[in-house]
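User: Okay, second chain of the day. Same drill as before: sequence in, structure tokens out.
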Amino acid sequence: MDSYNTNFQHLYVFENKLVKKPVSGLIVLHINYLLFSLTLKPYVIVLNLNTNTLQEPHIIIVDNDPDDNARFLNCFQHLNWHHQVKMLNDADALFELLDNTPHLNLLPTLIVLDYNLPRLGGETTLILLKKDKRFQSIPVVLFTTSISDRMEKQLLSLGALLCIRKPKTIDGIHWQVVELMELAKAQFHSHQMALTTK
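Assistant: Same drill. Structure tokens below.
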């Protein structure tokens, strides 16, 4: 691990492991005076920043209600997750974003659809997502203010992962956001495990 100078070491972090040699596709980040092994020395940390793979779970929420969007985003911000969430107003914006994603591994970890979207409703959007081979593996959650057992069964049969009711209180929104975060994390880690076994 020694480099051109005894006071300067190279640590390479790749797939959560320290390695001694550079790996193709890594980007160098300079961090001065990193505390490592109880010694204070300058280090270079090389992180796995493969531009064709998400480095953390991401959620897209599609809802045309600005008040709901603001409340959800406020909860994500409070939990320091706002940089991993994108809020969209309709299905057209969703498909434009997905179509312009440069690599399949950069697609969102989870999509949350309001059932009552304008023009293309949540159900139709779900059907279109599941018909497209590029997007059909993305888990989709449907949420709405009210849902019957019959509607829920229909949406699940079309490929929805979950159907949930929109909460009416701030506390309810908070816990629903936490649930979505945990779901996205689980999906992300499952996807990462699948990639490493290929």
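The radius of gyration is 21 Å.

User: Thanks, on to the next one.
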